[in-house]
Specification:
heterodimer; A: about 325 residues; mainly alpha; MetI-like fold; 2 domains; B: about 425 residues; alpha/beta; D-Maltodextrin-Binding Protein, domain 2; 4-stranded mixed beta sheet
C-alpha cells in the first residue's frame, strides 16, 4: 500500500477543517462562477445528484413524515374539496395497534421469518458465491440461473411454488409418507418457514452477486499462505473467506432484514392473505388491510412507524453484533 | 448556512413542491347541472366491455355535444382500491359500473359519491327500477349513493357426471338440507368420484365469506343481512348453523383447507361449486352441469331460499364535472332495453324488480334457459349490510371463520361470539 498524502488538511481538534468559503471569517473565494456559488465547487456533480435527492425526499422522506403526522391524527383519505376534520388523537392509533392481537401475531410471524430467512440467505449466498468463484465450467450458466428468480415477478414464482408445496405437489410426492399433514402452506407451523425458504431462494441471486464482488477483493496470497500453513478448504473458508467478506455480510444482513421485514407479496399470494389462520400474516400485509382495504390509514401509519422503529433497532443491533465480532 | 447550500436547499424545495403538486391536483366537486363530455369506467369483463361500448356508441350518436368515453377500470389489486385512490386524488370518471356495495360506505365517508336521489327524479328512478330490494342499497343517512345495477345470485352448480359416478341421481339430486349435502359429499369423496365435494376458497381476504358463509346464512335466516337494525348477527342461530355445516365439511375432508390453484370445478377436482350466472358461459358445454339453490338446515323449498346477491352497482363520483350528463347516461344505460342487452350479452341479472317476468321470453329461449334458475333466484337476494366499517367488519368475520371453521383451531361458537362483539363495536364507533 502506498502512502498517500491527505488531500485536505486534517482537523486535529475535531472541528471542521477551515476553508476559504467566507463563512469562517475568510474573504469569499475568488474565481467561482455563479453556478459554483449556488451548487458548490462541483456544480455538475451536485446537479446530477439533485434529481435523486429530490426523488428520495419526495418518495421516501415526505411519506415517512406524513405517515408520522397521520399516525397521531384521526385521518382518512378524502376527496379533494371535501372539508374533513382531522383531529389530533395523540397516541390512540398506537394504542390500538399495540393492543391488537393480530399485530402481535404479525410481528411474531415476521420474527420467525427473519430468524430463518436471514441466516439462510447469508449462508447459502456465501457458499454458492465461493463455489461459483471457483467453478471452472458453467460459471456463467449458474450465475444466470441463480439470478433469474431475483428478476422474475413474484406472482409467477408463487404460482410455481404453489404447485411445489401443495398437498399434491412435487415436494409431498417426493416425501411420500413423510409429507407434513396439513401440507406446508396450510400448516400453521410450516407456513412461515416455507415463505422464508421461498424468499431466500428468490433473493439468492442478488446476494450471491454481492458476495462474488466481495470475493474478488480477498487476496489470493492469503489463501496461499493458509494453504502453506496446512489449512484445508473448510479451514480456508472459515479463516480467510468469512473474515474477508465481513463488510459484505453486514450489508447482506441489513438488506435481508429490511427486505424481510417488508414482506407482503408472499403471504398475500402464497398463503392466501396471511393464512392459515393468520400464521403468515406480516405487519405490511396488515398495513395494507388497514390502510387500503379498510380505509384506516391513520392506524396503518401507526403500525408503519412501529415497524420502521423495530427494523431500525434490529439493523442497529445487527451492525453492532457484526462489528463486535470483527 | 453557506450560500451554495442555501441555494441547493431552495432548488430542492422548489423541485419537491413541483413534484408533489404534480402528483396531486385532482378535481374538486363537479357541477350537478353540468353538461358535456364524460368518461365512464367499465369492469374488465369482456362481455361487459362490449355491452358498455354499444351503449356508449348509441349515446354518442344521439348526443354529439355530450360525448361519452368508456374505459376499463385501471388495474389494481381490487377495483375498490383503485376507486378509493381515484376519489382521494380527484381523478375519478363520471360513472363507475363496477362499484362493490361493501365499499360504498367507505367511498361515502371519503365524500366521494353523489347521492343519486338528489338528481332529478333520482329516488323514484332507483326505487321503481329495483323495487323492494332497493332498500338494501340505501345508506344509513337515507341517500342512495349507488344505483343497484346487476346481481349474480349465488347458487350451487354440480357436475352430473361426477354425481352419477358417486351413485347420486344426476338429474334430481337431493341437496335441500345440510344433511343432504353432507351425505352427497361423503358419497362423492368416498367413492373417489372427485377429490373434493365442494372447494370454496379458504383464503383470508375479507370478501371470501360472501361465497361460503353468507349464502348459507342468508338462506338459513330467511333473507336477513348480517347486520339488522344496527345489531350484529354474526353469532345468530342462522350463522352458527351455516358455520357448523361448513365445519363438518372441512373436518371430514369434504372441502379442502388448501386453495386450489385453478378452477377445481372445471378440472373435475370438485363435484360442486358456489357460483353465479356467469358460470353458464364459463362452463358451457365443457361440463354437464345442473344447478340448485344453496341448502338450508331444514330444507326450505327452492322458491323460498334466499342467497347472496354478489351485486355490482353504478356510482357517480363527486369529481364528475358534468353530472347532469352522467345522470342522463346512467338512466339510458339502465333502461329496460339496456338491461335486456346486459342480460342477453353478459348473462348477469339486472337488479330490476321481477327480472324473470320482465324478460320471460328470453329465459324461455334456448340461449336463456340455462339462466332461468338464476333469474328465479334473483328475486330473493341478500346484500352485504350497508354500514360503516363494512370491509373491516367482513375481515373480522373472515378471521374468525378461517380459524374456527376452516382450520378448527378454536370452537366455532366462541369464535363467532368474539367476532360478533367486535362487529358490534365497529358498528357503534363513530
Amino acid at each position: 500500500m502506498s502512502a498517500v498524502t491527505p488531500a485536505r488538511p486534517a482537523a486535529t481538534d475535531g472541528s471542521r477543517p477551515k476553508t476559504a468559503s467566507g463563512s469562517d471569517g475568510h474573504p469569499p473565494r475568488k474565481g467561482l462562477t455563479g453556478l459554483q456559488r449556488a451548487f458548490g465547487r462541483h456544480p455538475i456533480g451536485t446537479l446530477l445528484a439533485l434529481p435523486y435527492a429530490v426523488f428520495l425526499v419526495a418518495v421516501f422522506a415526505y411519506p415517512v413524515v406524513l405517515a408520522a403526522w397521520m399516525s397521531v391524527h384521526d385521518w382518512f383519505f378524502s376527496a379533494p374539496g371535501v372539508e374533513v376534520d382531522h383531529p389530533y388523537v395523540g397516541f390512540e392509533n398506537y394504542r390500538q395497534v399495540l393492543t391488537d392481537p393480530a399485530v402481535h401475531q404479525a410481528f411474531l410471524n415476521i420474527a420467525v421469518f427473519l430468524v430463518i430467512n436471514v441466516p439462510l440467505t447469508v449462508a447459502l449466498a456465501l457458499v454458492l458465491a465461493v463455489a461459483l468463484n471457483r467453478a471452472a465450467r458453467g460459471r456463467t450458466f449458474f450465475r444466470v440461473a441463480f439470478y433469474v428468480p431475483y428478476v422474475t415477478a413474484s406472482v409467477a414464482l408463487v404460482g410455481v411454488w404453489l404447485f411445489l408445496l401443495g398437498g399434491d405437489g412435487v415436494v409431498n410426492s417426493l416425501l411420500g409418507p413423510l409429507a407434513p399433514q396439513p401440507s406446508w402452506l396450510v400448516n400453521s407451523s410450516l407456513a412461515m418457514p416455507s415463505i422464508a425458504g421461498f424468499v431466500a431462494w428468490k433473493q439468492l441471486g442478488f446476494f450471491v452477486l454481492l458476495y462474488l464482488a466481495a470475493l474478488q477483493n480477498v487476496s489470493k496470497d492469503l489463501y496461499e499462505a493458509a494453504s502453506m500453513d496446512g489449512a484445508g478448504r473448510v479451514r480456508q473458508f472459515s479463516t480467510v473467506t468469512v473474515p474477508g467478506v465481513r463488510t459484505t455480510t453486514a450489508l447482506v444482513v441489513v438488506l435481508a432484514t429490511i427486505t424481510g421485514a417488508n414482506l407482503f407479496t408472499e403471504p398475500y399470494l402464497l398463503t392466501g392473505g396471511g393464512g392459515p389462520d393468520g400464521a403468515s400474516t406480516s405487519p405490511v400485509l396488515l398495513m395494507y388491510q388497514l390502510g387500503i382495504e379498510q380505509g384506516n390509514p391513520d392506524t396503518a401509519s401507526a403500525l408503519g412507524i412501529v415497524l420502521v422503529v423495530c427494523v431500525g433497532l434490529l439493523v442497529l443491533l445487527n451492525r453492532r453484533l457484526l462489528r463486535s465480532e470483527s | 448556512m453557506r450560500t451554495s447550500a442555501r441555494w441547493t436547499a431552495v432548488a430542492a424545495a422548489a423541485l419537491l413542491t413541483a413534484t408533489t403538486a404534480a402528483c396531486g391536483g385532482g378535481q374538486g366537486p363537479g357541477d350537478p347541472q353540468g353538461r358535456g363530455p364524460i368518461t365512464i369506467w367499465l369492469s374488465n369483463n369482456e362481455q361487459e366491455v362490449a355491452w358498455g361500448e354499444e351503449r356508449v356508441a348509441a349515446w354518442n350518436a344521439a348526443n354529439p355535444d355530450q360525448q361519452v368515453t368508456a374505459q376499463q377500470i385501471p388495474a389494481g389489486k381490487s377495483s375498490e382500491e383503485v376507486i378509493g385512490a381515484a376519489i382521494a386524488a380527484g381523478t375519478t370518471p363520471c360513472l363507475i359500473y363496477n362499484t362493490s356495495p361493501a365499499a360504498v360506505p367507505q367511498f361515502v365517508k371519503q365524500g366521494g359519491l353523489v347521492p343519486l336521489d338528489t338528481m332529478p327524479g333520482g329516488d323514484d328512478y332507483v326505487t321503481q327500477r329495483t323495487g323492494e330490494a332497493a332498500a338494501q342499497y340505501r345508506s344509513p343517512d337515507g341517500h342512495f349513493y349507488q344505483l343497484p345495477w346487476k346481481s349474480n345470485p349465488v347458487m350451487i352448480i354440480y357436475n352430473k357426471e361426477l354425481f352419477a359416478k358417486a351413485g347420486l341421481d344426476p338429474d334430481a339430486p337431493q341437496l335441500l338440507t345440510y344433511d343432504d349435502v353432507l351425505a352427497a359429499s361423503e358419497a362423492i369423496v368416498g367413492s373417489g368420484a372427485a377429490q373434493a365435494a365442494i372447494w370454496p376458497s379458504p383464503a383470508s381476504q375479507f370478501f371470501q365469506s360472501w361465497f361460503d358463509l353468507y349464502p348459507l346464512y342468508a338462506a338459513a335466516s330467511g333473507g336477513q343481512q348480517l347486520v339488522e337494525d344496527g345489531e350484529a348477527l354474526v353469532d345468530s342461530p342462522a350463522a352458527l348453523e351455516a358455520a357448523g355445516f361448513w365445519r363438518q365439511m372441512y373436518a371430514q375432508g369434504l372441502s379442502p383447507q388448501e386453495a386450489y390453484t385453478g378452477d377445481s370445478f372445471a378440472d373435475g377436482k370438485a363435484a360442486m361449486a358456489i357460483v353465479g350466472p356467469w358460470a353458464v358461459s364459463v362452463y358451457g358445454d365443457d361440463v354437464d352441469w345442473g344447478v340448485v339453490p344453496v341448502p338450508t338446515p331444514d330444507g326450505l323449498p327452492a322458491e323460498e331460499v334466499h342467497t347472496f346477491s354478489d351485486a355490482k352497482n353504478v356510482s357517480l363520483p363527486v369529481a364528475c364535472q358534468n353530472q347532469a350528463t352522467a345522470w342522463d347516461f346512467l338512466q339510458a344505460s339502465t333502461s329496460a332495453d339496456a338491461d335486456r342487452a346486459l342480460l342477453t350479452e353478459t348473462g348477469q341479472m339486472p337488479l330490476r324488480a321481477d327480472v324473470a317476468q320482465t324478460y320471460a321470453d328470453w329465459f324461455a329461449s334456448a340461449d336463456g334457459a340455462p339462466y332461468a334458475p338464476f333469474a328465479q333466484q334473483a328475486a330473493r337476494t341478500v346484500e352485504v349490510p350497508n354500514v360503516q366499517n363494512s370491509v373491516e367488519i367482513w375481515q373480522d368475520v373472515r378471521n374468525a371463520w378461517t380459524g374456527s371453521v376452516i382450520f378448527g383451531t378454536e370452537p366455532v361458537e366462541s369464535a363467532l361470539a368474539d367476532a360478533d362483539a367486535e362487529v358490534q363495536h365497529l358498528l357503534e364507533v363513530p
